[in-house]
Task: inverse folding
């Protein structure tokens, strides 16, 4: 398994649809607490998740959200 940050962007007018897209969509990310800038006007969200690959990571999101999302493979590093 790999670790991914999912970075999603949508416009202000798409914000209601981005949240509504989760209704009825089964995912380990549903009901999670992503970091977001929506309330401040930025309309970006970030999730951390594990998946086999980028495609599998994006499948954890509803299609409307996944189309606007970049899956970034990351690893943890120890800082001195």
Result:
């Amino acid at each position: 398994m790999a670790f991914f940050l999912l970075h999603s962007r949508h416009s202000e007018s798409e914000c209601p649809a981005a949240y509504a897209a989760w209704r009825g969509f089964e995912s380990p990310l549903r009901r999670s607490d992503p970091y977001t800038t929506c309330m401040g006007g930025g309309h970006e969200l970030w999730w951390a998740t594990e998946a086999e690959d980028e495609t599998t990571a994006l499948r954890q999101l509803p299609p409307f959200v996944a189309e606007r999302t970049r899956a970034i493979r990351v690893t943890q590093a120890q800082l001195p």
